[in-house]
C-alpha cells in the first residue's frame, strides 16, 4: 500500500464564486520513494501539499472533493485534534525559508524538544538524547552548542538542517519538502539534497518534494509529477520524464532550462569601454571615532572592464559582494575607495548633484518585479518619469513610452494600466522598458530573472539579448545562477567573500574553471549532468 | 490571488460597508453628522441666546421652555451645549489639519534625510517627554487665551505623534526598489518624497487624524475646565462643566449634558477611526469568515 495516496483532489477558493485552483489531481508515493511535484508558479503544487497537511489557509481555500489517504486513512475525515497529532508523528513538512519557519526567540534545541514533548511521554533525559541524536544525524557540527543557539546565530544551511531534524525527529512516514533549497546557495543546496536522500534511505520515509527547479529534480527524484495551472500534466519515472516527455508542456518546460554549457562568446564589435571598475572597495561598519565597531569588507579590490555591446556576469553565492558591486556602480551606495568610470568619466567621487548628468547613462533592473514599480503610478507614468526628469516634453516621452512597450513585447494599451494588473514577467519587461527610456549606455541587472519562472526567464533573457544587439548597450548581469550566466554573458567574473577569484571569457571560466571555488560552484550546480533542452545526458 | 481577495473586500456599496465594519461605525457617523449639523446651524436652532443672563430663571429644572434647564446665571443649558459644539469641532478640525500638515512635512524630511533626522527626532523626543496638557497650559498662559492660541497650544504636543508615524513609514518605504529606481532615473529628492513616498502615508495618516481630532477636542475641554482655555464668556463644553462644578451636588445635570455631548462626540470619532483602519489597512481588518 502506498504511504500517501491522493485521489482526485479538488481545491477551490472559499467564496461564493468558488474559483477552482486544483482540478482533480491524483498522486501516489510509496515507502522510501522521492516524488517530485514540479511546476511553475500558480501551478497548484504548494496548494496540493498544504491540503495534504491540512494547512490550507482557513477562509480562503478549501478542499471540495477527493480523498487524501495516509497509510489508508483519509486525512480529510480527521478532526482538527487528530490531524494535529498526525502532522508531527506521521507526516511533517519543511519550508522554503527556514528563518521564518523557526521561532526567533527560542533556542533551536528547545524547539525540537517541544515537538517531542507534545507528542511523546519521554523523560527529559531521553528527550535530550533524542534531540542530540537527530542533530547528529542531520550532520551538524558541535551539536551541544548548536542546540543552545538561536536561529539567527546559524547560517541558512544550518537552519534548514534544524528544520529537517525537527521534521524527522518523530520518524514520520511522509516528509513534504516545499522548495526546501530554493533560498540556499548551490553548494549548501547540494549538501541538503544529499542529507534528505541519506536520511530517507535510513528511515524509509516517503518524500514529496516540491520544486520548480529541473536541476533539483534530476538530482533527487525517483518519480516526477508535472503540474500546470492546477492540472496534472504528466507523471512517470524521472528518467522517462527527462528523456522522453510525452506532453508539450513538459517538453517546453524542459527546453526552457538554460544549459550550463556556455554559449559561444560574441566578437567584440566596439572596443570602447562602457564601464571600468578599478580597485573598488566597500567597507561596512567601522563606527565613528571613539566607537569602533566590527567592519565588513563587502568588496575588496574589485577590478573589471566591460565593453559596449557586451555582457559581463558577476556570479557568486550570497554574501559574495556581487550586489554591493552593482549598487556601488549605480552609486546607490558610496564606495569606500576605488574608481568607477562610465564611458570614460570618473563617477566614484561625485556628489548627488554632480552625479545627475551621469544617472542617465546607467540604469538598473531589480530582482523583485513586484516591488520595483510604484504601485500607485500607471505604467506610462513610470516609464516617462526618467526622460521627463531630463527635460523631454511629456508628449514626446509618451510617444517614446509606447514605442518601448512595443519593443519589450507589451500592447500599447498597457500604458494606462497599473502594475498589479501584470504578471511578474510582464512587470520585468516594463522595468526594462523604463530603464531603456533613458537610453543608457550601461544596464545593471541585479538578479533580474531570478524571481521568474523558467519559461518567462527564457523570454526575458531573449529580450535582453535582442535589445543589446539593437542598441549596443552594455549589460552588467548579477546572478547566482550559473546556467543563466552561461547563456547570457560574454565574460564572467566569479566573486567570493568580496573578492574576485576568477574572471575571463564565459567559455573559459565555466568550461574550464581554474580556481577551486569556481570548480566547486560548477560541481554543485544541480542537474549538471543532464542536458535538459535536448532530453539527454550531457555529452562528456 | 490574495490580491484579488483583498480588492474584493473593499466596499463598493453601503451594504458591503456595514457587513465589513459592523453597525457601530454607522451609528457613530450619524451621531457625528448630527453634532456637526447642530454646530453649523446653531444660531438657527437654539431656542434661546446662549449668553443672555436671566437672574430670575437661575438653576431651573428642565421645562417645556428650557428643555435641559438653566444654569447658575439663568442661561439655557441646551443652547449653550449646542454652541459649545462649535468651539469643540472647530478646534478638533483645526488642530487635526495643522498637526497632520506640519507632522507630514517634518516626518517626510526627517525620514528621508539622515542629518535632519538626528536633530528633528531629538526635538520631538523632548516634546513628547512633556505632558501635553501641561505644555498646552504653559503656551496658553504665555500667549494669552484665544481660540487661536488654544489651537496652537494643542497642535504642538500632537505633532510628534504624527511625525513619528510618517517617519516610520518613510523609513521602510524608502528601501523599496521603486524608490531606488526613481533615484536612478534622476528624480530630484523633493519629487521622490512627493510622488513616491508621501502616498504611502495617506491611509495610516487618515486613521491617525481621527485620533488626533478626538484627542484635541478632549484637551480643549480639559483646558477650558482648568480655566486655561478660550475665554469663559464663550460657551464650550469644558467651560460649561467648569462653571457647573460648584453646583455639582445640587444640579448634577448641569455637568452631565455637556459631558455626555463630549463623550458621544469623541466616541463617534474614535469608532470612525477604527472603521477607517479596518477598511484602509486590510491586514488589521476583521476577517470575513
TrEMBL record, chain A:
Domain ABC transporter: 4-254, 275-522
Assigned keywords, A-Z: ATP-binding, Cell membrane, Membrane, Nucleotide-binding, Transport
One GO term describing the cellular component: plasma membrane
GO biological process, one term: transmembrane transport
PROSITE patterns named in the record: ABC_TRANSPORTER_1 (PS00211), ABC_TRANSPORTER_2 (PS50893)
Keyword Nucleotidyltransferase in annotation: no
Subcellular location: Cell inner membrane
A molecular-function term among this protein's GO annotations: ATP hydrolysis activity
Pfam families the record matches: ABC_tran (PF00005), oligo_HPY (PF08352)
Flavoprotein recorded as keyword: no
Subcellular location, principal: membrane
Topology in the lipid bilayer: Peripheral membrane protein
PANTHER family: DIPEPTIDE TRANSPORT ATP-BINDING PROTEIN DPPD, OLIGOPEPTIDE TRANSPORT ATP-BINDING PROTEIN APPD
Similarity field: Belongs to the ABC transporter superfamily.
Name used for this protein in its record: ABC transporter ATP-binding protein
The species this protein was found in: Pseudodonghicola xiamenensis
Organismal lineage: Bacteria, Pseudomonadati, Pseudomonadota, Alphaproteobacteria, Rhodobacterales
Automatic annotation (TrEMBL), chain B:
GO cellular component, one term: plasma membrane
Subcellular location: Cell membrane
Bilayer-spanning residue ranges: 21-46, 87-113, 133-156, 253-273
PROSITE patterns: ABC_TM1
Membrane topology: Multi-pass membrane protein
GO biological process, one term: transmembrane transport
Matching InterPro entries: BP-dependent_transpt_permease (IPR050366), MetI-like (IPR000515), MetI-like_sf (IPR035906), OppC_N (IPR025966)
Major site of localization recorded for this protein: membrane
Keywords: Cell membrane, Membrane, Transmembrane, Transmembrane helix, Transport
All residue ranges annotated as the ABC transmembrane type-1 domain in the record: 85-273
Family classification: Belongs to the binding-protein-dependent transport system permease family.
Name this polypeptide is given: ABC transporter permease
Amino acid at each position: 500500500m502506498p504511504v500517501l495516496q491522493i485521489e482526485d483532489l479538488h481545491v477551490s477558493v472559499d467564496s461564493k464564486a468558488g474559483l477552482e485552483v486544483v482540478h482533480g489531481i491524483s498522486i501516489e508515493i510509496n515507502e522510501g520513494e522521492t516524488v517530485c511535484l514540479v511546476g511553475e508558479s500558480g501551478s497548484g503544487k504548494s496548494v496540493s501539499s498544504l491540503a495534504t497537511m491540512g494547512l490550507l489557509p482557513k477562509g480562503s481555500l478549501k478542499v471540495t472533493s477527493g480523498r487524501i489517504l495516509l497509510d489508508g486513512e483519509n486525512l480529510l475525515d480527521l478532526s482538527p485534534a487528530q490531524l494535529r497529532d498526525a502532522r508531527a508523528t506521521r507526516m511533517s513538512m519543511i519550508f522554503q525559508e527556514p528563518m521564518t519557519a523557526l521561532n526567533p526567540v527560542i533556542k533551536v534545541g528547545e524547539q525540537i524538544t517541544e515537538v517531542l514533548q507534545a507528542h511523546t511521554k519521554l523523560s527529559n533525559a531521553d528527550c535530550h538524547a533524542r534531540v542530540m541524536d537527530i542533530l547528529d544525524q542531520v550532520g551538524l557540527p558541535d551539536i551541544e552548542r548548536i542546540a543552545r543557539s538561536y536561529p539567527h546565530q546559524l547560517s541558512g544551511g544550518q537552519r534548514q538542517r534544524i528544520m529537517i531534524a525537527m521534521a524527522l525527529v518523530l520518524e514520520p512516514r511522509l516528509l513534504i519538502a516545499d522548495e526546501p533549497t530554493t533560498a540556499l546557495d548551490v553548494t549548501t543546496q547540494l549538501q541538503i539534497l544529499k542529507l534528505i536522500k541519506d536520511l530517507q534511505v535510513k528511515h524509509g520515509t516517503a518524500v514529496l518534494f516540491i520544486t520548480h527547479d529541473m536541476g533539483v529534480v534530476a538530482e533527487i527524484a525517483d518519480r516526477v509529477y508535472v503540474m500546470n495551472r492546477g492540472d496534472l500534466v504528466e507523471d512517470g519515472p524521472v528518467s522517462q520524464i527527462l528523456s522522453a516527455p510525452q506532453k508539450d508542456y513538459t517538453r517546453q518546460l524542459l527546453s526552457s532550462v538554460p544549459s550550463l554549457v556556455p554559449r559561444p562568446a560574441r566578437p567584440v564589435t566596439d572596443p570602447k569601454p562602457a564601464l571600468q571598475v578599478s580597485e573598488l572597495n566597500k567597507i561596512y561598519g567601522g563606527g565613528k571615532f571613539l566607537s569602533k565597531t566590527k567592519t565588513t569588507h563587502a568588496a575588496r579590490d574589485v577590478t573589471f572592464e566591460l565593453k559596449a555591446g557586451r555582457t559581463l556576469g558577476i556570479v557568486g553565492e550570497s554574501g559574495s559582494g556581487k550586489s554591493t558591486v552593482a549598487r556601488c556602480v549605480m552609486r546607490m551606495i558610496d564606495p569606500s575607495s576605488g574608481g568607477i568610470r562610465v564611458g570614460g568619466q570618473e563617477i566614484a567621487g561625485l556628489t548627488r548633484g554632480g552625479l545627475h548628468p551621469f544617472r542617465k547613462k546607467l540604469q538598473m533592473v531589480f530582482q523583485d518585479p513586484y516591488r520595483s514599480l510604484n504601485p500607485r503610478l500607471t505604467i506610462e507614468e513610470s516609464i516617462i518619469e526618467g526622460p521627463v526628469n531630463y527635460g523631454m516634453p511629456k508628449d514626446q516621452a509618451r510617444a517614446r513610452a509606447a514605442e518601448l512597450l512595443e519593443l519589450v513585447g507589451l500592447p500599447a494599451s498597457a500604458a494606462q494600466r497599473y502594475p498589479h494588473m501584470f504578471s511578474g514577467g510582464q512587470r520585468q519587461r516594463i522595468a526594462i522598458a523604463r530603464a531603456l527610456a533613458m537610453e543608457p549606455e550601461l544596464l545593471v541587472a541585479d538578479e533580474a530573472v531570478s524571481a521568474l519562472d523558467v519559461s518567462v526567464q527564457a523570454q526575458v533573457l531573449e529580450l535582453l539579448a535582442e535589445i543589446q544587439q539593437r542598441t549596443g548597450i552594455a549589460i552588467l548581469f548579477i546572478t547566482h545562477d550559473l546556467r543563466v550566466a552561461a547563456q547570457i554573458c560574454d565574460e564572467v567574473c566569479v566573486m567570493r567573500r568580496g573578492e574576485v577569484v576568477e574572471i575571463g571569457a564565459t567559455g573559459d571560466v565555466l568550461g574550464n574553471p581554474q580556481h577551486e571555488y569556481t570548480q566547486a560552484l560548477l560541481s554543485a550546480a544541480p542537474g549538471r549532468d543532464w542536458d535538459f533542452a535536448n532530453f539527454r545526458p550531457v555529452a562528456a | 490571488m490574495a490580491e484579488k481577495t483583498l480588492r474584493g473586500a473593499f466596499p463598493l456599496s453601503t451594504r458591503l460597508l456595514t457587513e465589513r465594519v459592523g453597525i457601530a461605525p454607522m451609528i457613530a457617523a450619524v451621531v457625528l453628522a448630527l453634532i456637526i449639523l447642530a454646530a453649523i446651524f446653531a444660531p438657527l436652532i437654539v431656542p434661546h441666546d446662549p449668553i443672555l443672563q436671566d437672574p430670575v430663571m437661575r438653576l431651573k429644572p428642565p421645562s417645556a421652555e428650557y428643555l435641559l434647564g438653566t444654569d447658575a446665571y439663568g442661561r439655557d443649558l441646551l443652547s449653550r451645549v449646542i454652541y459649545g459644539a462649535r468651539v469643540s469641532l472647530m478646534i478638533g478640525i483645526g488642530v487635526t489639519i495643522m498637526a497632520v500638515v506640519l507632522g507630514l512635512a517634518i516626518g517626510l524630511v526627517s525620514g528621508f534625510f539622515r542629518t535632519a533626522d538626528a536633530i528633528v527626532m531629538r526635538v520631538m523626543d523632548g516634546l513628547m517627554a512633556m505632558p501635553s496638557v501641561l505644555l498646552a497650559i504653559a503656551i496658553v498662559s504665555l500667549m494669552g487665551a484665544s481660540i487661536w492660541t488654544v489651537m496652537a497650544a494643542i497642535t504642538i504636543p500632537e505633532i510628534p505623534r504624527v511625525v513619528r508615524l510618517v517617519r516610520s513609514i518613510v523609513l521602510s518605504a524608502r528601501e523599496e526598489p521603486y524608490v531606488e529606481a526613481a533615484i536612478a532615473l534622476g528624480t530630484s529628492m523633493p519629487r521622490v518624497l512627493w510622488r513616491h513616498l508621501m502616498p504611502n502615508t495617506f491611509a495610516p495618516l487618515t486613521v491617525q487624524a481621527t485620533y488626533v481630532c478626538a484627542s484635541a477636542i478632549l484637551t480643549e475641554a480639559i483646558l477650558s475646565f482648568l480655566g486655561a482655555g478660550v475665554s469663559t464668556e464663550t460657551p464650550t463644553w469644558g467651560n460649561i462643566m467648569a462653571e457647573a462644578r460648584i453646583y455639582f451636588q445640587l444640579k448634577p445635570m448641569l455637568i452631565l449634558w455637556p459631558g455626555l455631548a463630549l463623550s458621544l462626540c469623541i466616541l463617534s470619532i474614535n469608532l470612525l477611526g477604527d472603521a477607517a483602519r479596518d477598511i484602509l489597512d486590510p491586514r488589521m481588518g476583521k476577517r470575513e469568515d
